[in-house]
Automatic annotation (TrEMBL):
It holds the Pfam family Glycos_transf_2. Residues 12-178 form the Glycosyltransferase 2-like domain. Gene3D superfamilies: Spore Coat Polysaccharide Biosynthesis Protein SpsA, Chain A. This is Glycosyltransferase 2-like domain-containing protein. It comes from Phaeodactylibacter xiamenensis. GO terms for biological process: protein N-linked glycosylation. It comes from the Bacteria. InterPro entries: Glyco_trans_2-like, Nucleotide-diphossugar_trans.
């Protein structure tokens, strides 16, 4: 008789910056989904990582934490998505850590696939890919699509990586492998940290699962400016390559 797979605990981190209008609604939607599919008490929590908000975001996060047992928050000392994730994961005790964007652009049922890939199939890292042939991308502006493909081509050419989408905000990993990835170069305080996770996982020969997804672009909530971001990413690629083991 085979032993049943042990239930894995997990933390879902949501990095936020000035998200007062939508924070409560989106977190409540995510909470309802997770509560339906993972009803066991104490198995999981949602971590709101506030990285420098100047509106009522932190206050709303505190209110949600007081009202909903599975919601907590961390206050990050300065802005930066990578810094927010490192702060959250650095204090986590869960088996699985990961993050998704507040706009829930990746359809929530994909989380069930990501969980199974790590908890049952023993993958080390799971990432969503909008560029997988089976993915369905909705409402994405043409210039963002082109920028994404160019960026990922640069990654493949310059860093020699094989993953298809380094920028998608939906990634999960065994918490036990995170210190290895950090040591190997996943250290950026900004958005590039998300790409560093996959790059260092490849360098260390971790088991990586590519997840095709349905992904809906929320153009109204985006603050991304492509050219300044591209310059930062190219500089970050150069710095990351210097750290290759």
């Amino acid at each position: 008789m085979t032993n049943p797979v042990r239930m894995k605990t997990f933390d879902v981190t949501i990095p936020v910056l000035n998200e007062e209008p939508t924070l409560a609604r989106q977190v409540e939607q995510l909470h309802a989904f997770l509560k339906t599919h993972f009803p066991t008490e104490g198995q999981w929590q949602i971590v709101i990582a506030d990285n420098g908000s100047t509106d009522r975001t932190l206050e709303i996060a505190q209110e949600l934490s007081n009202r909903i047992p599975e919601v907590t928050f961390v206050k990050v000392p300065r802005r930066g998505v990578g810094l927010a994730l490192k702060t959250s994961w650095g204090q986590s005790k869960a088996d699985i850590v990961g993050y998704m964007d507040l706009d829930l652009a990746t359809d929530l049922p994909h989380f069930l696939e990501a969980y199974r890939a790590i908890a049952e199939e023993d993958y080390d890292v799971v990432y969503a890919s909008r560029l997988h042939p089976k993915s369905k991308v909705v409402n994405r502006p043409f210039k963002r699509e082109v920028a994404s493909r160019v960026f990922n081509l640069l990654l493949k050419t310059y860093l020699g990586v094989g993953f298809s989408d380094g920028m998608c905000g939906f990634k999960w990993l065994k918490r036990e492998v995170y210190p290895e990835l950090h040591e190997a170069g996943a250290q950026n305080d900004g958005w590039f940290f998300s790409t560093e996770l996959l790059t260092t996982a490849e360098w260390l020969n971790k088991r990586i699962y590519e997840l095709p997804v349905k992904w809906t672009d929320d153009v109204s909530s985006s603050r991304v400016e492509i050219l300044p971001l591209a310059k930062r990413y190219i500089n970050s690629m150069i710095e990351l390559k210097k750290r290759r083991p």
